[in-house]
Amino acid sequence: MRRFKCTIQYDGTDYSGYQVQPNGLTIQEVIEKTLERMHKHPVKIIGSGRTDARVHAQGQVIHFNTELSIAPASMVKALNTLLPDDIRIRDCKEVASDFEARYDVVGKEYRYFVRQTEDAFRRHQSVLIPYSLDVAQIRLGLAYLVGTHDFSSFCVAKTETDNRVRTIYEAELIEQGEELIFRFHGSGFLYNQIRIMVGTLLDVGRGRFAPEDIKRMLEAKDRNVAGVTAPPHGLYLWEVFYPESKKGI
Amino acid sequence: MRRFKCTIQYDGTDYSGYQVQPNGLTIQEVIEKTLERMHKHPVKIIGSGRTDARVHAQGQVIHFNTELSIAPASMVKALNTLLPDDIRIRDCKEVASDFEARYDVVGKEYRYFVRQTEDAFRRHQSVLIPYSLDVAQIRLGLAYLVGTHDFSSFCVAKTETDNRVRTIYEAELIEQGEELIFRFHGSGFLYNQIRIMVGTLLDVGRGRFAPEDIKRMLEAKDRNVAGVTAPPHGLYLWEVFYPESKKGI
User: Fold this and answer.
1) Interval A160-209: pLDDT, tens
2) ipTM above 0.95?
3) B104 classed as catalytic
4) Chain A: nearest CA to B177, how far in angstroms?
């Protein structure tokens, strides 16, 4: 039995999120059904974490076990032939049998795309912001989020975890053509954390909050003080980081 | 009565092409129904030309008459509010009452996008070419198409026109990130001409034809000697050109 680690790209538009659930088609379900076709028996996959309905991934990571004598490059080709074209396998590696796509995560990068102009081709891939944004003010606000903080104000109030302390290593706003990209690299993120941070920063950009209000919000540890949750379709799980020692066989 | 000229962007994925037809939803039909809602009576639009099912536009041009006392900028906002988000109005101008979106065309630019890597987000917007391409050979072939030629070998055999002579002013291959873009600027193009030229040039890129075969194909004036018709979803009507004298009021 060998263990494979795959890096997956998906357009989340037509899915009810990553994780299997009773209502609606999910990314996990489609990949597991495809692996079942190849293996002639059910194959369970473990992902680095969930993504919500309509959220995308450039680099979601999964692992699974296989008894097939197939090279990783052939696994990529076989899966891409069988999967629908809104889910693509970008890379596959054989890893040690103790590699865990979920528990070994040491960091994640998310990006959130917004645009200020109408664009038929980006309608499911970035969020249209029809009001003008003060990019310099957003950058000032963004700086307050970097570091180790209790992010209770920036996650769903009912988040099932006692520890809401997380570390954001880097946060930046990238101007790329007609779009603005929020990039966050951190130890891990709470439920809806990126979308609430972005929703709040967009309010900073239109002058509803001052940049230094972000500091006050962090201190309040109360979801009610932060801004709205930005829509799902601007969000991408961009990259998942693992320790060097887990780089593969 | 005033005449408006609008520049339209559309993602052609979910449409049966530009022009109204009995089977399947078309771009023209959706825009006309939207204008009818605004005007409380049917409004006919005239486009610069047709695009096929799944073909896109960055800059299709239409005209129509209106008795509404509405500024062009307000027309853009009103239409974008009412239209589905895969059809966007980019610009609207009032023009002289003799402006004709179809008959006044003096040139068109089309672009055709291909990529060599899997990409879930570009699946409907560019064509995946899974074999390697010799870009230098394609550029040599492309050069033969520039100029005034009889393009009978590069259009649908049953094309209903006696005159198959057209002029290509510029043709180039642009390398942009992971994608290759064929750009054609010409006086006008025959039915399926861009897709047949691209299909043939891709065969040059993989070594099935030599670049100088393009010259031989033009001389043959026979659709059977050229390559396959490339798929529709890589094609974009990029820009439509009108005389300076028709620039608007």
Assistant:
1) 777 999 999 999 999 999 899 999 999 999 999 999 999 999 999 999 99
2) no
3) no
4) 14
Token pair belonging to B132: 């390697």
Does B100 share its domain with B82?
A: yes
pLDDT in tens, A106-155: 999 999 999 999 999 999 999 999 999 999 999 999 999 999 999 999 99
CATH of the domain at A116: 3.30.70.660
Q: Is A15 annotated as a binding residue?
A: no
Q: Which one is catalytic: A52, A91, A134, A150?
A: A52
Provide the domain count of chain B. 2
Q: Decide which of B83, B104, B125 is a domain's last residue.
A: B104
Catalytic residue among B11, B52, B134, B150: B52
Q: Does A141 share its domain with A53?
A: no
Residues A234, A113 within the same domain: yes
